[in-house]
Each structure stands twice: as structure tokens, then as C-alpha cells.
Amino acid sequence: MRDRKSSRHPLKSLPVVLIACFIALAFSSYFLPDKKPGAYDHIQLEYSLLPPLTRVQFLFLEENPESDVERIIPYDSLFLDSDGIEHYFSKRKKVYSNYHRQQTAQQHSRLFLLGTDRFGRDLFARVAYGSRVSLSIGFLAMMVSLLVGVPLGAIAGYLGGLADRVIMWLASVMWSVPSIMLVMSFTLVFGKSLVQVFVAVGITMWVDVARTVRGKVLTLRNKEYILAAQICGLSSFRILAVHIFPNILGPILILAASHFSTAVLLESGISFLGLGVQPPTPSWGNIIRDHYPYLLMGKPWVVILPAICIVGLILSLISLANRLRDHFDVSSY
């Protein structure tokens, strides 16, 4: 028999700490610059495929009143005079002759913590923003699956009869089609924006929720306290909401954690295929899709880092689901 204290606090565990780290990473994307090197969508080809922990220097020319142009000039060394800017970067010399004294030249430096991608964009910024996309899609898709699956499963299990047969037939039809094919079909028909992606992922996962809820409701609807509530004239909605739902909350939480990981994996898969979130918005899947050839070209970090994020988040969510299952499993005590 296991010690009950060991499973009283499933939230006090390493998976929760890792999930919290990914959430913090997602929130850090709100504090990253939206311009200059360091922005997730700022292209600077001179910085292409820099390794992690690389610090660069650049000159930022403020807006030119005559041409409304802003320039970011990378350099290793430079010289400014009245005619232009002569600067050196990676042993290459370039001269910009349209420098005006009305412009203010500011020297800056930037540390690329995780390096850059093939377009010179900050990889940390893109991974951080990608975590925001993946977590948002995972959470919203999980909520869609619960909002669809819990009511349908409860209705099928409690009412039975024709409602049960129709809902279970629909669930069997959905079950027979691979989830990735359903998501791909949905995004091809309705578009590839963020909303379509999480709705498409969510509607493919409600079947597990409905089947689980139906089975739990079937075991509870003939209990004495449910029969007493029916004799007292309580409505079916109140019986389900007040007397049945609290008793099946544990399995629903387990499914929520499991479906969160499934949604993240599905989103990464369809983004890798080019059917998910579209550029320039980054997600872990499309970062890997854009750079997987570099695994064999001596620059593997652009693929390995987002892949580690996918694996780490999914393993954390699966481990959390297992801990929740053990916590709510009374037979283990």
C-alpha cells in the first residue's frame, strides 16, 4: 500500500516546475523588443546562423527626416565622417553614403542568447514567442475539447437511449479518422490562422473526453443518492451539475493535462507541414521546418533548441497527467 501523503500534492513536482518555466518563457516574449536586433521578426542577414552566446555590435540610425528611413548597420569596426559611414563586419567592407548630420547615430550591442536563425532573427525571441503560440493553442484546444466532450458525454451517459446511440455513433466516426488528417482538412478548408488551428485541434480531441465522461456517468447514475435526487424532483441539469460532475472532476483533470500535451504535439506537427501558424509568426513546429537541413550542415542548434522545448513540455504534461491519475486513484491507497 502506498503512502497517501506521497500523492496528496501532485502539483508539487518537477513537471509542474518545468511547465511553469515554459509559461515564464512565454510571458518573457512580451518584454522583448519589437524593433532592432532581438525582435522575433527582425531580419538581419549579416547575423545569419550565429552560434549561441554571440554578442554583436550595431549602429542604429534614427529616422531620416528627408527619406523616412531607419537603418541598422552591423559592424566590427566603423568610421563616420561627413560623407558616409565606412564599417567592417565579418571581414567585409561596406560604405553607406547617405548618412546625414540630421540623423542621430546610436551604438548598441546585443547578446544572442540562443544564436540566430538563417535570416539573422534572434532564436531566443522566436522560441519564446513560439512557446506563447504553442501554449495558447494547447490550452485553448484543450478547453474546446472539454467544452464539447463533457456535455456530450454527460448527456449520453445520463439520458441513454437515442441520445446515447447518436453521440456514440458520432464519436466512433470521429475516432475512425486520424487526428492529424482531421486537423489538416479543417485548416485547408477554413484557413490557417491561430483561431482555426486551435479550433481544429480541439474538435479532434473531444471523443476521448466524451467516452470517459459517459462511462463515469453510467456508473454513477444508478447510485442511491442520484436516485434520491430524481425522486425529489431535481432537474437532470442540476443532478448532472451538482451531484455528478464533482465526482468525475478527477478524470476530467487527467484528460485535460493529457490533451494539453496532445494539442501541443498536433500543433507542432501541422506547423512543420506548413498548415499551422503561418510566417512570420513563429511556432516551434515551423522553426524546425525552416531549419531541419542545418542538422547536417554543422549548425544543429537552430533545430535542437525548439525540439527540446517540444519534448520537455510534452513529457512534463504527460508526467503531470500520470501524477494526477495516481492522486485520484483511490484503489492505490
From TrEMBL:
Pfam families: BPD_transp_1 (PF00528)
Keywords: Cell membrane, Membrane, Peptide transport, Protein transport, Transmembrane, Transmembrane helix, Transport
Gene3D superfamilies: MetI-like (1.10.3720.10)
GO terms for cellular component: plasma membrane
Domain ABC transmembrane type-1: 131-321
GO biological process: peptide transport; protein transport; transmembrane transport
Subcellular location: Cell membrane
Protein origin, superkingdom: Bacteria
Keyword Ubl conjugation carried by entry: no
Record membrane topology: Multi-pass membrane protein
InterPro entries: BP-dependent_transpt_permease, MetI-like, MetI-like_sf
Transmembrane segments: 12-32, 137-159, 166-188, 194-213, 225-246, 298-321
CDD domains per the UniProt record, alphabetical: TM_PBP2
Family per record: Belongs to the binding-protein-dependent transport system permease family.
Name of the protein described by the UniProt record: Peptide/nickel transport system permease protein
Organism: Schleiferia thermophila
